Amino acid sequence: MSTPQINRFKKILVANRGEIAIRILRAASELKLRTVAIYTYEDRYSLHRYKADESYQIGADDDPLRPYIDIPAIIKLATEKKVDAIHPGYGFLSENTDFARACRDAGITFIGPAAESMDQLGDKVAAKTLAKRVGVPLIQDSDKDISNPETAASEAARIGYPVIIKAASGGGGRGMRVIRSEEQLRVEVVDAASEAEKAFGDGTIFLEKFIENPRHIEVQLLGDHYGNLVHLHERDCSVQRRFQKVVEVAPAPNLKQETKDKLYEYALRLGREVGYYCAGTVEFLVDQDESIYFIEVNPRIQVEHTITEEITGIDLVRTQFLVSMGYPLAHKTIFIRDQSDIEVNGYAVQCRVTTEDPSNGFKPDYGTLIAYRSASGMGIRLDAGSAFPGAVISPFFDSLLVKVTGTGRTLAGAADRLHRALREFRVRGVKTNIGFLLNLLEDDDFQKGRATVRFIPDHPELLETRNLRDRATRLLGYLADTIVNGNPDVKAYDPKRTFLKPQAPSFDQYAAMPKGNRDRLLELGRDGFVDWLRKEKKIYYTDTTFRDAHQSLLATRMRMIDMLNVAPSYAINQPGDLFSMEVWGGATFDVAMRFLKADPWRRLRKLRNAMPNTIFQMLLRGSNAVGYKAYPDNLIVRFIEEAARGFEMHDEKGKLSGYTGGIDLFRIFDSLNWIKNMEVSIKTVRENTDSLAEACICYSGDLTDPKEDKFTLDYYLRLARQLEEAGAHMLCIKDMAGLLKPLAAGELIGGLKSETNLPSTYIPTTPAASRAQLTCGLSKPVSISSTLPSTACPA
């Protein structure tokens, strides 16, 4: 090796933007180099300009993109600012040989391979000529200028469809199109050339045989100025969308070592042929039989270089600077003496988080990031661009927001770690592909390393992303609007009024569960329990909050989690006075399933686990059950049986060992007091379950009114006798209109005591969330609903 000629840089310029500019600036900062950034007016708030020691706007204010590929302007700026070297990053001018030569002519080092090497490798057509010369296997392609559609059609016929159009100076999928017919070719060849010209300043395109369902494998090369060239193993970049890489893995899983060795040898053969130095990537297709086909060489740093860095521990960008200064690979600053110094440790997976909508064909989304929270933790690396609250996502640039790289000892482990990190992200204001990436990382084919370039098209279910409701942002938006503009529902505010803050009783959530009325029901049995209740002089209370609050006062917004947070307090603090909890019925099913997207059966099971000592009560509308129409008798019977039986319990071996309790008390009513509508329900509860049947009498008229000729005392007593004969264990006076006056209550309760043998329940008419049902012992159990004080339910 010749004597190293070291030329230490003092100031470098990054001819790029976004995350790769930040990545390069950080590497330069570690080497104590002064840094210069460039930006366009559109990019004036981008973070990369603030990461540099100096930053300068290039181009006119109305030109957001083209200045980044304006070679004379960049060279002029670099010369004026006495820059020693320019790093092009990826994209833009990174593969432009004219730019490399312009740097050299200006006495500025181009951080990359020599222009002569780029001539032979950076141009895809030239690279294929080179590969053919050195014996690297190729895909059949066009050998004529195909800018003319007639020539393109002739070449495609010779190669055989399907073919793919590629841009000779391209990358990132720009200009690439799969063609399956001559008619399609004649249109697409013109569009592809135009796109290539706009993206790369070179409209040269060529045709290539399209190989169905291969894997996309690339080998990372690293060389110095002294003929030393090594590979940093391979990456699997098969997971692509429209030829744009989405998720990359290193090393490639499920690839024979024999195949890998061939890939390394082919890549090194190409690099050595042109005296390659600095970092570069050789890309191949590997088909199902692991036959290898050379695609192209990217003589620059790649988007996915992070995963190679993670598995080898080698900083590629830092090494690019050192090699360009003249350091050999074996120098202590790099310490790669030969191929044996490069070892692979575990797996790395990189995801590209983009501002795209997967459910809408990955359409890019633009706007302001109103919230941004990224992830961290062991084995997670972030390479972000301008991602922060308030950042504006512009339509003029790539939709990449941040690259997230996860590492692990296995591919599945790295994928799981990356999945965790993506779940921690919160991006608001624009749509992202995070939901799609979460689906992809969980996919069994991906985790087992079976992905090919057809992976995303063959797995359309990955696009069905989970529903992220963004509740926090909506709530903050509502609060902000209310603070600034006021609440239109509040007509006036009286500052003299004071509101007492409710104090929830404290309880020890780990205390032993005391015995409650459900324990008494299980110990005494149904008949014994009814007999005990009949003799009781004390008033007991049923709380209906868990049924009513979610559907009435709070307008369908009381969630299961809210109920579960307070349920243990009821069970531990009020086992004696609390007769029962009404947890089901009415509009519970409709609200839970239509508005809250919750499973009412799951709610019942969770509440039972939280309140095992409490009688569970439900409201049942006779043959309407919990719906809004009459149902067949067999459906009502089965519903009551299932609701009363509860849920399966299993032993340690998974065998059914019994059932937890479901509904203990069914409050059955008909708004028109039609006994026949309640008979099936009452009979089913009595004969098919161990639960209690509480039949309701709807109080519909004042029995003390001398003008009342229908809703008399005799009317209500006759209903009570019929309900007792139908099999009811308890009676309920349901006074939802607030008509039952104290005098009438005395007459009604007295009559019920003498005419029936059932305990009594009474439900006062109050706001739904605070409505309570009072239960006391009459000669028979009875329920009542009204505004009456508790003394209205006499012992």
Which features would summarize this protein structure in a list?
795 residues, alpha/beta, nine-stranded mixed beta barrel, eight-stranded antiparallel beta sheet, 22% strand, elongated
Brief synopsis:
With 795 residues, the protein is of the alpha/beta class.
Mean pLDDT: 88
Strand content: 15-25%
Secondary-structure-based class equals alpha/beta
How many DSSP H or I helices? 25
Give the end-to-end Cα distance, rounded to a whole number of Å.
Answer: 108 Å
Radius of gyration: 38 Å
What are the low-pLDDT stretches, counting only 5+ consecutive residues below 50? Answer: 765-771, 778-795
Helix content: 25-40%
Shape call: elongated
Largest sheet report: 9 strands, mixed, barrel
**Spatial order of the strands in the main sheet?**
23-24-25-28-29-30-31-33-32
Number of strands: 33
Instruction: Please give the oligomerization state of what you see.
Output: single chain
Protein architecture, described:
With 795 residues, the chain is an alpha/beta fold. 35% of the residues lie in helices and 22% in strands. The chain has 25 helices and 33 strands. The protein has a nine-stranded mixed beta barrel with strand order 23-24-25-28-29-30-31-33-32, surrounded by five helices. Helix 4 (97-105) runs antiparallel to helix 5, helix 7 (149-159) packs across helix 8 (182-200) and helix 24 crosses helix 25 (742-755). The longest helix has 19 residues, at 182-200. The chain is elongated.
